[in-house]
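Sample 1 of the test manifest.
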Amino acid sequence: MPEPLIEARQVEKYYDQPSDNRIQVIAPLDLAVYPSEILTLLGPSGSGKSTLLRILTGLSPASAGQVLWHGSPVNGPCENVSIVFQSFALFPWLTVLENVEAPLKARGISPGARFARSLRMLDAVGLDGFESAYPKELSGGMKQRVGFARALVVEPEVLFMDEPFSSLDVLTAENLRSELLELWEDKKMPTRAVFIVTHNIEEAVLLGDRIVVLGKNPGRIRTDFRVDLPRPRDRKHPRFTRIVDYIYQVLTQPDTEHALPAAGPASTDTRPKYPMLPHARTGGVAGFLEILADHNGREDVYRLADMLSFEIDDLLPIVEAAALLGFAKVTEGDVEITPAGLEFAHADILRQKELFRNAALAHVALLKQIKSSLESKSDHTLPDDFFHDILDEHFTEEETVRQLETAINWGRYAELFDHDSERKRFFLPEETPGEPPNVEVGTET
Amino acid sequence: MTVPGLSRSLIPDRTWNFLMDAMVFAFLFAIVYAIVAVARYWFSAPVAAVEISLSPTAIPRYAFYSLVRMIVAYILSLAFAVGYGYIAAYNQRVEAGMLAVLDILQSIPVLSFLPGVMLAMVSLFPTRQLGVEFGSILLIFTGQVWNMAFSFYASLKALPRELMEASRVYRFGAAQRFLQLELPQGVIGLVWNSMVSVAGGWFFLMACEMFVLGKRDFRLPGLGSYLQSAASAGDTAAIIWGVAAMIGVVVLIDQLVWRPAIAWSDKFKLEQVESSAAHSSAVLNLLRKSPLLARLRGGITTPLMERIYLSAAHRPAEAKSGPSNWQKAFVAVAGLTALLLILHGVFQGLLLLKGVTAAELVTTLESAGATWLRVIAALAIASAWTIPVGVAIGFNPRLARIAQPLAQIAASVPATALFPVLLLGLISLGGGLNTGSILLMLLGTQWYILFNVIAGAIAIPSEFREVSEIFHFGRIERWRTVILPAIFPYLVTGLVTASGGAWNASIVAEYFHFKGQVLSTFGLGAEISSATDSGNFALLLLSTIVMATLVVSVNRLVWRPLYRRAETRYRMEA
């Protein structure tokens, strides 16, 4: 093994809470980036992959552990890295040329040299003729080319990319990916390694020499393996699909560790976690179960994702929700519908709500907790803050808000409780006798 | 070799640019002369109360002096706003405190700063006109700086995270980060707030150029004092000349400075997609074409900027060593000194307040009530006409094209300048200052509401209006379910600004020197003005505290909840 360029040793990220509980975003992990590899870091949302990128580049400090750059510890942004951002992060008030020149200016390079180097880079990414345009005049793909040029013009040793293609349309993304590979293969960029964060499995397999998959809650390395498919890679190649399938297996099976050797010791925190609601809409779950029922009740997750042209961030929460409610089971990368799920899929709208309500009360701790708390109050109402404070102990602020949003969505659908967003209160719906005859009220009693 | 046809077509372009160059050159020359003239005047021996000539021929000179005061005050405001906003945005430890200070300071009317500022400045430069001049400039400064500071702070806070990260990962130095990231981000907010601030400066110009402080009479040569003197003397012709001059200057500045500034600031919009409605300014286009300016840029500005970047490049913004012990000690000492000064001030203030009698306290509170009622009346009247008119303009693009520029010119005219004229009318009609002051508040603040309502009405999606047509909504239903909720956030913004403006305006609206006598009505503004006039510092302090408390608590208790409601329930979302 050659000397790593960047190495993370027992790096972790957590937020301290007022109580001794702390919110672990990334569990202690080891990860090294080696010369002449494209490393793709893959993970569902909430696995801390962007956070890990920021720790490795020195943009944000790790809570514990160490990041080494050529063997010496890093404090503050690394000397010689670049980042290509998901949102491009171009300065809208600077022209294309000025945007690319900005990092050179920061290094005190003279105007002449700056101009020449920037033009050369703009040429390389196919932007000659656009020097004096402003970013807002360019299409998304063109903007990201400027992002590439700006990143490469400083000749970074490691090029970091934070979901660089995810705000582009499919065709543009495909085009830029192959151009990136071309620059890399032809050694047109002076970069020694590329580190790409993505949530698109196919993209990871298309680009990566090495793939690291993160699990979530807290973020940890689930698997880390090399891909030795020759480039350009063919999506239809059996080995390609096998790798994609394998990654789906890893991602959909939360509790077992997988067979492929990991780079570092897979140290995971096994404390019991507060059960987390997957962020799926109830309508999505219902639609998913109906499709699954149409496919004889069993289907490969990868095939489903492909068929629905979903990315994992769209599909995984739905699969998790169905599994949590006991409507589906996940085995070896396949989803299988349960008898309860089948009944749900074939029921009419009102019956579906009832089945959902029963399943939610039986399996979903947070919904149960909200309902019983509301029932125990004489006026059947509680402020958001009450539940916010409970969840706060276990999740980051952002995640707490999302958990409550999902809980409200599910609770309303199941008619377990309702929520007043203006007064920020949960309350139990009251059956008002004065209203016109309502079927839902009838079925409930 | 030139093609004859082509070269001919180039001729007009060339002459035009030469003309432009000549104008730019003349402009630069005039500035140099102006600086010399002002410097000579400032460093002359102090004359606290110059005789103000009411002859129209004196007006250009007075307008010039007023303009210089406004410009210096504005430059000071800009520097202060940027510095204050910067420190507040980047230092979490002091952030909350600095914002609270800003909130309170902006609720204190200009005249309440007067005694402190004037006495300090005059004692600082006892032998030069500079002292009195600087006092006046600082007064104008206190009237315009706070919202600019708020604006810059808010822009810094709204910087997108990835842009910040890009500037860090590409190792921008402090200078480059400021020039390429932070300042551009703040430009739009600063330009719009500068317009509001400078308009406020014109509004209070009369109060800032001519005032009585106890036994001392301060009168500085300027447009404000010209108008004030004309009003005191009851010289109708002079009043009209003065008003015309002021309107002329304001409109000219609007066309020559603010319109180009707005058009220029369009490029700092933080949007990734080009919007269709761009501002344009003929003056800006001309300036962009001037070869002389281009040469100035190439020869002076650009190399200078290079030097700044180069010297800053070697010192990255983040020297991760942390503050040294020296710095820590300095901060501690400075903090302690500030604390002691504040404590001393509070103590002295309390001592001063001991002199206030119970009767004075009751009167102050009662007068606060009276002013409050006037503010409410002004807001109600303003809303009553601006909402229907604003919605009509917003719904009708053709009307908007005619009405908006007119309204903008009308809004830029400082209401105080019109006040003498209005008073003449009111007195001949037999009305008093009690209703007159409401009228003045109205004149100064209704525009904020009007412009916001127009913006809100324009922003209503046409689908909403189609829905109300398809379902045959009646007039009342249409207003209740579509128009009012849709313009609500804009209306609240307008009302907040108008309310603050009305409170501040009360100090000039309720108390006025006219035809050799003082016209005043019962109110907090009159209280503050007369306390300044008579040098009753205890009463001035008391009434200032009452006003600041009132304004801040109305903001907290009324406007902030409404704002929050506007942002949650009435926000347009796709």
